[in-house]
Every structure is written in C-alpha cells, then in structure tokens.
Amino acid sequence: MQIELGPLSRIEGHLNVKTTVIDNVVKDAQCVGEMFRGFEVILRGRDPLDAQQITQRICGVCPYAHAIASSYAQEKAYGITPPTNGRILHNLIQGANHLYDYILQFYQLSALDFIDITAIVNYHGTDRDLVQVRDWVKAELAAKNTFPGAPFLPRLKGQYLHNDEINIGALKHYIEAMEIQQKANRAAAIFGGKFPHATGIFPGGCAQKPTIDLISTYQALIEEVRDFIHQKYIPDLLAVAHAFPDYWHIGQSRGGFMSFGVLPLGPGADSRRLFAAGVLLDGKVRPVDFGLITEDVKYARYSSPSGLRVTEGQLTPAPEKNEAYTWVKAPRYNGQMVEVGPAARVLVDYKQGNNPQVTKLVDRFAAKARITAKQLNSVLGRHLCRAISAVIIADFLLEETERIEPGGPSALDLEIPATGEGFGATEASRGALLHYIRLQNHKIEKYECVVPTTWNCSPRDDRGNPGAMESALIGTKVANPAVQIESVRIVHSFDPCLACAVH
Amino acid sequence: MMNRREFMTMAAAIGAAFGVGNLPEPVAAALRQIDPQTIPKLLYLQGQSCSGCSISLLQAREPTPLTLITRYSQLVFHADLSATSGSQAMDLIERYIAGEAGPYFLVLEGAIPEKMPTACKIGDKSLASLLESAARTMVGAVAIGACACDGGIPGAEGNLTGAVGLPKFFAQRKIDKSVIQIRGCSVHPDWVWQTVVHLVKIGMPELTEIGSPKLFFSRSIHETCPRYHDFQQEIFAAKLGDGGCLFQLGCLGQQTKADCSSRWWNGGQTWCINANAPCIGCASPLFAKQKNMPFYRMKKRKT
User: Fold this and answer.
1) Could you tell me which chain A residue has the CA closest to the CA of B281?
2) Parallel, antiparallel, or unpaired: how do β-strands B140-144 and B105-109 relate?
3) Interface check A1 vs B, CB under 8 A
4) Catalytic residue numbers of B?
C-alpha cells in the first residue's frame, strides 16, 4: 500500500514522505522536498557582505546559524579574527537562537503528537490562559464550524497521553513556551538588532557595543529561559518519555553521525568548541574533513554532475528529471550516510569526552530512563538531546556574559580582498551547517551551503542508499497505515527544515 | 436580517467581484460589525518562503499570538502550527479553497515560482494552481513579507524560478483582487496582527499606493529615526560599531517606508539601527533585488 504523509505540518516548509506499507510495516520511504529557490545562484556576483544577510533568508527559523556560518567563512576568506567581544556576541546571539528553537520544537512542533489537547474541556481551574482556551474550544464546537478548533484540531488518529493533569499542564506550558521563546529571541536581538534575520551580525563581530545595561538585560532574559528549561521543558519531556517508552527504540537511523561543533571558546572560529566536532562512523569519532563531503543528485531534480565536492558545487535545476523525486540533494561523508542534529551533536561530544557536562547529563538521563547512549538514536533520543543541548547552552551563555569586556570593541573595520576563500562550519539547532565562499574581483564567485536537513532529509545517493530519515522510517511498525502517527513522530523528531534543506 | 453566514457568503461574492479593497460602503459598514469571535478565518499558505514571517508572527506580545488566533481571527491552517497533516490537512485546505468551508482570507507567505511551477508544491498541487483556485473563493488576500509582496530574495536578480509576489501573480492572470501587502523581511508581527484587528474592528485599513496599510508604512524610517539629529549634525558612523547616523555605511532608511524607527522590534526591545546595524531596506519593494546594489558601503577595498 502506497501512502503519502504530506503535506507534513509542524515542520518548516514543504515536505512529503512517500511510504510503502506491507503488513503494517513501512517497507520503503522516500523524503520529498517540494520547494526550490536557488540561493547559491542568486548569491553569485553579489557583494560578499551581502552573504550573511541573504543566507539568513534561507531559513527564518534558524537564520542566525546561517549568519554565523557565513561570517566564519568570510573571516577565513578575509584572513581576519574578531576581537574577543565580537566572538562572544556571535555566541550570545547564536546560543539564544538555539534555546528558542528547542523550546519551539518541543512544544509547538512536537508536543501535539503526544499530548491530548482535548483534555482542556475537562479543565475546572482558574488559570486565565487555560480558561480562555477552554471557553474558545467549547464555543468552537457549539458554533458548528466546518473545522472547529483549528489549528489545534483536527489531528491524526492515534494514541495520546491519558493523564489529564499532564495534558493540561503541558498545554499551559505550550502557552508559556510562546512567551519564553520570545524572551530568548529578545535576548538575541539585543546584539543582533532584531529577530528573525539579524542585521547586526558581521564577519569579525557585531555592530552593537556590549554596554553593561545590555549585558544585564540579556542575562535576566536568559535566566528566565533557563528556569523554564529546568522547571517545565525537561519535566514535560520526561513525562512524555515515561508514557511512550517504545519511542526510545523507534526511529533509529542506520548510518553514522556528524557534528561540526558549536560555540567556539576563543576568538578564532577554529578554537575549541563547547560541543566538539567529529564524524562518528563504525563506533569511532574522527575529525571532520570538509574535502570528503560530496553531494549526489541522481535522485534530486538537478542535471548538474553528481558527487561534486563542496568547493566545486553546481546547481542546474531539472524539474522533470527521470528518477528524481525531490529537490533535496544527497550529501555524503566519504560516501557514507550520516545523521546530523541534536543526537549527533551529543553523541559525537559524548564519545570524545569533550564536555564533562555532556557526559554527566547523558549518563544521568540514561539511568533515569533505563536506556544506554545507543538509544539516543531514536525519536525520544533526539528530543532528549535537544533538551541536553538547551541545558548546557543556557549555562554557557550566562558564563560567557561574564567574559565580555563591557563597552569594548566588538567589530572590525572590514576590508574586502579581491580574492579569497573559506569554509564556515557550525551547528544550527537542527545540526551540522557548512557554508563555503570564494571571492573573485571583490565579489562572490561561488557560494555553497550544505545544510542540516539536506543531510537528514536526503534522498537515495547514487548507489541507492537511503538518507538518515528515510532509513529511520523504513522498518517502522504502524498501527494505522493510512495515518501513520508513528512515522509522523519520527519525522518530527528530526525537526526537518525544508527551506534549509533545498535553499 | 440575514445571519452571519449568509452575510459572509454575500461578502465573499461581492469581495470576489470587487476585490476586498473596493467593498461597497454598506458591506464595508457591515464588516465592521462582524462578531470578532469568528472572523476572519485565515488560510495561511507558504510559497517559496523561509518561515521567517511565521516565526515573526509568534513574536507578537500584546495581544499574544494565542489571543490573536482565537479571539481576533482563526488560523484554520498553518503548516508550522496545525496539528493535522497529510490527506487530512489537504482535505481541509481544498475544502476552503473550493468554497465549501465558509468564507476565509487567503494569507500567503513566500513567493510563487512563475516560471517553474513544480518548484513549490503543497501536497500534490502546485502552489500556483491552489492560488488560482483560491482567487475565486477567498474574501480577500493578505501578502505577508517581501517574498509574497514582490518576490523578495527568491525573486532577486539572476534567480532561476521566476519568483514573483502575489499581486503580480494575480495581475498576470487578470485576476482583479486587491491584496493587502505587508512588506518586510521578515514582517513585524504588529504590522500583520494589527491589520487583522483592524479588519475585525473597523474594516479595511487605508492603504498606500503600493497596497500597504498606511498605519505602518506611510513615513520613511529616516524621518522618524532617533538618529535623525545625528544626520542633521553630520555625525556619521565611519565604520562598523560606530554610533551616529549610519548613512555612510549604506543605511537605506531614507528610501524605506516603515515605522521600525518608532515601533522597534521584538516587543520594543531594540531594532536594527539601535544595534548600529544599517537599515538594509527589507520593507522596500526593491529589497535585495539587484546584485550591484550591495547592502553596505564599506569604503575600503583591499587590492
């Protein structure tokens, strides 16, 4: 039986998943990215300093990661290193963006897969938000609208959490999360200028000077976000995990893992990072070599050559190409399929013992949930690794604010060379993000982006091997093949961003 | 007295004939009295977009996003928030577009790939075909952000898909529907939500010659800039990180009509120029269009 799961909602962008189900098991899955813009072509011939602005528009959910990756690439190309304040401000902006994104991903994008939102009609308390939602739902049902309760209803058929107290509590936190993500974004905007799409991020630092008033406002906002992470986000996640323990074993991808590391601890983009970079293949972590990354296009809608390295990337759309089923290319590391994202970030760091806090948190949560680190490769594992990242990044950001020299220089007077090239790599909240810039005549000659969801929603490579999410879907048992809430939960655990994946 | 449903059906029919901007006065007056609990319904579709405008809409503070989608409007579908997906979602979208689920406003974020329709699909339908059908049934349309208004960065010079905004897309098909155009990359949440509140409480807002609510888009950023004094005194930033007027670094506040300079962003926390970042003109119809119009003017060029 052929079932299409698209259009998928509560993700970014245009994703379809074509499945073949036999005897209630997903035998095949194809991830289909349905939107193409062609950023890399649009960037050619432009002023290099346009790049950290233009590339943010690849994705309005994680724009800062693109600005940071572009800034790193340009710093390499220009041969510059930011002042210490400049790098710290980059980190403060990017880190706050991670926090907002994790909270949004859990509550707004994933929670409705597990939480029973209809429990609200049984609410008898006096909380203003919940009373408002309850009365609204009741009015909706009474008004006989064609689709009452949208956008929260209708929903997919499936088993949701039974405990009203947990359901209503999580719903309250869903509402609070809307406010908390704003606080994280306000904090980032202090130095970035606005969110989304910061105008204040540049190669070499930030235009804003970190005066003491701005720093203390930033700290106060992040402290509130940190409290929410510890007091609400993690308990809610553990409650979901407790109610759906099978999902520690559902949605395993069948390749390696890769992280580029995030949040450099010194001014140079090459400094050691809060989360370490590495490629985890066959149980061993090795350093990342960007030269080993290639992109296959046999099954993607391009007529440009397949298997090109990043520095030689090409983009010729071929919308009607035979065999092609998606706009997403198939990136591979040394020919291997890898998953990127929170689980990869945590596993790659954990295996190297880089950050003691990562080790401690993984061990603590694993003991609590009675799993091993291996189960981080699962639906719940990805959610847990987002939460672990959130805890560690929130603490780091507050420490980082103490390292600022208040009022000190935070930007460089930029000179654009005629030629130059550079890679910029970081972790977006969704995973490993790589930008490459090459200049000619003071202009962009080539710009390439290999983006987290390009890895995760990759189609088959030229040899026919599936991408990470495809591999995680294949083999999944589904109770109701036409609906497949199990598959939808797997998709959401990857937090796909299709605008990023295709760009 | 006709009931609400009958009225909205009529309003939809008239809206289809005249475009929402040209409603006859009795209808416009009646629109002003519509029960705010149930109108307007917003069918929110994404074209060639980055979701940045959607994310910006979640940054609304007072009223909160939840209040805005339960009390002032109803968001019947949004890819980032809707619980539903797959065929159930497609059924919902198609029933609205077929005119079977009651009156609705079409809200579009993102551009339309005019020369390559398969470059944007929702389910098994091209965005273009959905929009053509919606034009026949919608009460009106709101274009959200630079891409939906003018093509934005997907429509910038050298693009491969022929990306255009909704007004041009309709004009090329001789579809006579006015579109409320809310520019910005991304939009400011107030610009959109307060337009919705205006629709509910008062009716159609007054629009500028490029279809944007006058309430937010009548004056240039420069005119109300807190650094206007610096400009007059010729106190100019010479390099990144300097205070003063940012004109010499390339600030486009003079050419860009929007109220950022008085409204500020992220709940009034800050805005670009307050962070020493030159305005890049993201609310201008010309935003990012030309390769030879860089965002910044850094004086030095290393040889």
Assistant:
1) A199
2) parallel
3) no
4) 50, 53, 147, 185, 222, 225, 245, 251, 260, 272, 279, 282
Which of A237, A226, A233 lies closest to A183, judged by CA?
A: A226
The structure tokens listed for B120 are 């944007």
Which of B87, B265, B278 lies closest to A189 in CB terms?
Answer: B265
Cβ–Cβ contacts within 10 Å for residue B101, how many?
Answer: 21
**A451 belongs to a structural domain:** yes
Q: What is the rounded end-to-end Cα distance, in angstroms, of chain B?
A: 77
Q: CB distance from A4 to chain B under 8 Å?
A: yes
Instruction: Tell me the pLDDT of chain B (303 aa) as tens digits.
Output: 344 444 455 454 444 444 444 454 545 544 544 454 456 899 999 999 999 999 999 999 999 999 999 888 989 999 999 999 999 999 999 999 999 998 999 999 999 999 999 999 999 999 999 999 999 999 999 999 999 999 999 999 999 999 999 999 999 999 998 799 999 999 999 999 999 999 888 888 999 999 999 999 999 999 999 999 999 999 999 999 999 999 999 999 999 999 999 999 999 999 999 999 999 999 999 999 999 999 998 766 555
Contact A9 B120 (CB under 8 A): no
Q: Where are the domains of chain B?
A: 4-216, 219-303
* Total domains, chain A: 1
Domains B4-216 and B219-303 belong to one CATH topology: no
Residue A472 structure tokens = 């995680």
Q: CB B116 to CB A9 under 8 A?
A: no
A445 three-state secondary structure: strand
pTM of the model: 0.95
Q: For testing the chain A interface, which of B56, B270, B301 should be mutated: the one with the most A CBs within 10 Å?
A: B270
B4-216 under CATH 3.40.30.10, yes or no: no
Topology of domain B219-303, CATH: Cytochrome-c3 Hydrogenase; Chain A, domain 2 (4.10.480)
Residue A60, token pair as written in the block: 């309005």
Residue A280 counted as domain residue: yes
Q: What is the CATH number of the domain that holds A181?
A: 1.10.645.10
**Is the residue at A264 inside a domain?**
yes
- Which has the closest alpha carbon to A364: A341, A384, A394, A379? A384
| Closest among A435, A452, A462, A423 to A308, alpha carbons compared | A462
Which of A5, A34, A57 has the highest number of chain B CBs within 10 A, making it the mutation to test binding with B? A57
In a domain, A355, yes or no: yes
Contact assignment for B50 to A59 by CB distance below 8 Å: yes
For residue A71, the chain B residues in CB contact (below 8 A) are none
User: Which chain A residues are within 8 Å of B186, Cβ to Cβ?
Assistant: 60, 196-197
